[in-house]
Predict the 3D structure of the following.
Amino acid sequence: MSLTFDITCRLAGTFSLEARSAISPGITIVFGRSGSGKTTLLRAIAGLAPAQGRITAGDRVLLDSASHHVLPPQQRRVGFVFQQLALFPHLTARANIEYGLANMPVDARTSRVNAIAQSFGIAHLLDRKPPAISGGERQRVALARALVTDPDVLLLDEPLSALDHATQSHIIADLRRWNETHAIPVLYVTHAHREAFSLGERVIVLDNGRVVADGVPHEVLESPSQEPVARLAGFENLFDATVTALHHEAGTMECRIGGTACVIEVPYGEVPSGAEVRLAIRAGDILVGTVLPQGLSARNILPGTIQSLRREGARVVAIVDAGGVFEVHLTPGATSSLALSPGRAVWLVIKTHSFRRVST
Amino acid sequence: MDWPAILLSIRLAAIVSATLLVVSLPLAYWLAFSRWRGKFLVEAVVALPLVLPPTVLGFYVLVAIGSRSPIGAWWTALTGHPLAFTFEALVLASILYSLPFAVQPITAAFSLIDRDLMAASSVLGASRLTTFRRIVLPLARNGILSAAVLSFAHTIGEFGVVLMVGGNLPGVTRTVSISIYDSVQSFNMTAAHQTALLLLGFSFAMLAIVYALLQKPWLVPHK
């Protein structure tokens, strides 16, 4: 079973989604910031949002605008787990899970619900209503409700984003185990990098209603080739720079950050000297020293001044002027042991291969 | 105490609120979920009885059911007697008069239902009617309960419309509020006191029941 789509959705205003892809069995992450069209894509596949184009699941055609064929959501055989789960609050967990099996004889229905409840570890709470069930267990009920109908495709709209990491991976492990026997395509929408990196075999990156990258998570997100992907993948620093020297044999080149005298060494690229390039680097890949570091392998050691420091949860975001303005992430412990404060002179240490070249 | 008038009022109110539930469920569903731009016009028409003087509403109903109107003529042909100044005329007028009291609470309750619940129901294969029966109705039950009680109580208390459309025929169109008015007009203050006190107690009890049911956690289906 595989899912293919080639669709356009126009929503109110100027937003439009244009996406085409073929999704094989297994978990595919749909990654993008909010408003990028992730949810719209899922809703269009499920038949909950109007779309033009063609969608197929296996040999079943769910949508074919050319022949005016539009299956209603009731007939698409799609499992959907909503962001807020959408469990029916007035029905018990059992009645929620049974809901999609209305046409099945009572005995068959009951044994099927019992079996899936067993495999998702929720058998003990089948008689409770959703408001009386804890967060992680509610997610399991929602997943069981979607899967008990044996859908051809499973669509998950950020269902686990509110959970801690351990619970998340448990649920994903249960889902993988279920899918070993069913082998259906699963689209998992998220805007969190960590989920995008760790949960799926493949990632599709959406930005502003377009697919901007598609591939294996580590390749797509570790070396993003396009700026929107770099931003999503956590490359906080993006610079325009001019190539000033090429060192083919060393595998490096020198670039001057636009409008500054700051020259840095970055990985070699197939560009001529004098070319304009766009460079990206993660704020977490930059080291800060208060004295000039010596005997390091890192090739970029830039003098700079701290402009500001602010605490964001468990990390400190420092803005450092080193010719170019860099965002640097530190731990609160490092910040206090180095006695960092605005105005303090520091050295930034950056490995050559921490820089990525992206296109805009 | 004018028991025939009291019983007549209760019978009228029961018929009216039952009919209104049947009429209001589809109307409220449409008002809550339709995306038609001209919907506000229908909303305004439904709310009209809230602001219109009862005599104005009663006057137009009287004109509409008079023997010279198509409705009145059709009724006379069907039943052999005119519609005006009958119990049936009271029912018709009361339905119009109490319409917003039934439609508005139900519409509000429908509007509060999370659309994702309805989407989830469709994705799980339920038809629109099944979704309505199994999801929308149970989740809107407080609104439906309010609608039933409010339209019942409002019908019990009406005066102007009844007087215009039904007149004051004992056992046919003389409701409890007309009876009180009659007692006062004939200086029978004892009778007026008795009936008025009964109506006051009844209205308070009805509202107290509604508010109690609405705040009871065991009736509220979800947080």
Summary: Residues 3-215 of chain B form a domain with the MetI-like fold fold (CATH 1.10.3720.10).
